[in-house]
Write the structure tokens for this entry.
Amino acid sequence: MTSSFTRDDEGRLTVGGLPLEDIAATHGTPLYVYSGDGIRADYRNFAAAVAPVDGKVHFALKANSALGVIALLASQGAGADIVSGGELQRALAAGVPAAKIVFSGVGKTTAEIGAALDAGIGQINAESAAEVEAISRIAATRGVVAPVALRVNVDVAPDTHAKISTGQRSTKFGVSISQNEAAALYRRLADDSHIRPAGLAVHIGSQICDLDPFERAYTALLEFSSALRGEGLPVPTLDLGGGIGVDYDAGTPTDFTDYGKLVSKVFYDSGFQIGFEPGRSIVANNGALLTRVIYIKDGDNKRFVIVDAAMNDLLRPTLYEAYHAVLPLAPTGALEGPADIVGPVCETGDYLAQDRMMPALAEGDGLAVMSAGAYGAVMASSYNSRPPAGEVMVLDGECHVLRRQRDIAELLAEEVIPVLS
Ligand code: LLP
């Protein structure tokens, strides 16, 4: 499969037929650019891969919650996996039907649960006995019946970065299926007149490139849910979460064929409604962060390429030592030597790439930090009073502004100076 970002005959890096240099010149840098065509195609590929089990796909908004991206996915039939009241508002504002919204997360507040029930969302994934109590109480005061699934912890450790691994018992996520904890809580759910038991959910982590942990987790989930059904309890839905890894080296779309086959192998004809929460695999390789070289600095033993994007725009390299390819927008010359691509933020940890072989670069040159469509703009901050990058999306040959870069005046306007005596 080919990447959404390709070089044209003249060697210019393009997306959807448009040169990225032109987009950077028009909209400024730093700037997130998404391939709407790629996002749509990858969503369709995912949906097709899970069609044999009639899978319901809820895009995990935490990966990319630009309203334009959510609306594009909603137009393709996607629902939304949300983790906050803010994401609930985003999903609704982008046109996701409430019935297609699933609410995940360990710390939903009373206000958030109330808002979700008022909106009539399809499913709340509860993660603790305390949360089940809260949902029941909040539903009772409203005189409604809350659709609640239980997120279980199947104690499977995927091979991924420790900070994004959620499947082990030692993490804060889910209710353990061992020692009957989850079974007892599910019985309690099913007994509650303010709750409609919606089934079970599992999510073992993110950026998982090997199918084996998924297979172990799904098999454990199927066994557990079948046992509950054996007791006569209603378990309509199994929500398999997200977590499918992407190729950050090649930047190519994820091939969902084998994942789809695995899901069919485990769940075909099982009689459960199967749900999914993919995030990264739909958007990561359909986004790039465009930036420009401010200065080149030859340090003691290495070259620093200082650019106008920084850790406040893309935190992944700093937080997870994540690899993102960095490509010049213009036709590339011969490689000159290794360089660190760093931002202007006053921290040694502020880098986008380290020890990267780069061609000769000069001030003003444009670069694309690749595979930045997931967990990029959503994790941005205004650290160092740097307004986070704007976002645009190229779809059907046109470039749409999704969000312009905020002005520092807007950020200052949010604050109040107390009257100081
Ligand atoms: N469902 C649940 C309950 C989740 O916690 C997550 C991600 C997803 C679905 C979507 O997973 P995905 O398909 O995107 O792997 N900021 C980190 C990733 C954090 C993932 C958190 N949960 C990063 O930049 O790598």
Summary: Residues 60, 62-63, 81, 104, 164, 203, 206-207, 241-244, 277-281, 316, 320, 375 surround LLP (CB under 6 Å). The chain has two domains: 5-34+284-413, 36-281. Residues 5-34+284-413 form a domain with the Lyase, Ornithine Decarboxylase; Chain A, domain 1 fold (CATH 2.40.37.10). Residues 167 and 204 are 4 Å apart (CA to CA).
